[in-house]
Amino acid sequence: MSPQRKAGVASPEELKAFVSAAGSRLVVVDVRNPDASVEPGDQKSLAVADLPSSDNRPQARHLIYDRNTESMPLPENVEKDAPIITHCGGGGRGQKAKDYLMAHGFTNVLNGGGPKEVECWNEFGDK
Question: What is the pTM of this model?
Answer without folding.
Answer: 0.94
